[in-house]
């Protein structure tokens, strides 16, 4: 691998305030690090352990644009992925209405598919750094292709202050707390990766 082609970005606490359950709670300066592999190489994401308020450290979250899909492989640690699909209205997706959603507990060796049109974020629920690899494309020619790539739509997540569920620490275990800004979302529970039904079509 040509390591000179890799680029790094960190997601700051100031940026993450936009999507936190408790935006005024203190947190680490950088919540997670993104190492972008560029063309033909996987990306690596590394989460800090810990919580902000009671909420576990998470990624900002985004929706896929167009036909893009991707796979996340868990390399180290323990996480919960939230995957959600917005309802469709006459003018396109409805940000505050979630038609389908999953919360998936992942451990090393698990691979999780993120379908086109769905949104996803991943949370570190373990006591150590959490590390994943993914095959999402990155265009280093974009103005902010490493931190905010063009294939990902972050704006609906910012408007809703996060996803339909926050993942919080309750006595050392993850619990889902509904985001009150969503008008409709299915009742879900945390499932094992083996029970996650969405698969990439061959």
From TrEMBL:
Residues 43-172 form the Glucose-6-phosphate isomerase prokaryote domain. GO terms for biological process: gluconeogenesis; glycolytic process. This is glucose-6-phosphate isomerase. Belongs to the archaeal-type GPI family. The lineage of its organism: Bacteria, Pseudomonadati, Pseudomonadota, Alphaproteobacteria, Hyphomicrobiales. It comes from Enhydrobacter aerosaccus. Pfam families: GPI. Keywords: Gluconeogenesis, Glycolysis, Isomerase. Its EC number is 5.3.1.9. CDD domains: cupin_PGI. It catalyses: alpha-D-glucose 6-phosphate = beta-D-fructose 6-phosphate.
């Amino acid at each position: 691998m040509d390591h000179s082609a890799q680029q790094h970005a960190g997601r700051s606490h100031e940026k993450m305030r936009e999507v936190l359950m408790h935006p005024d709670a203190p947190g680490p300066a950088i919540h997670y690090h993104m190492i972008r592999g560029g063309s033909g190489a996987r990306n690596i994401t590394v989460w800090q352990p810990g919580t902000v308020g009671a909420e576990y450290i998470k990624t900002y979250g985004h929706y896929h644009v167009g036909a893009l899909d991707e796979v996340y492989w868990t390399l180290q640690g323990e996480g919960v992925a939230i995957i959600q699909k917005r309802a469709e209205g006459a003018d396109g997706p409805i940000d505050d209405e979630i038609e389908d959603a999953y919360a998936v507990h992942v451990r090393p060796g698990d691979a999780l598919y993120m379908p086109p049109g769905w949104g996803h974020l991943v949370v570190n629920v373990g006591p150590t750094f959490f590390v994943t690899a993914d095959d999402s494309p990155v265009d280093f020619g974009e103005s902010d292709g490493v931190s905010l790539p063009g294939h990902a739509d972050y704006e609906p997540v910012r408007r809703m202050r996060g996803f339909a569920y926050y993942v919080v620490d309750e006595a050392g275990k993850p619990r889902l707390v509904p985001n009150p800004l969503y008008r409709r979302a299915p009742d879900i529970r945390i499932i094992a990766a083996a029970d996650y039904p969405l698969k990439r079509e061959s």
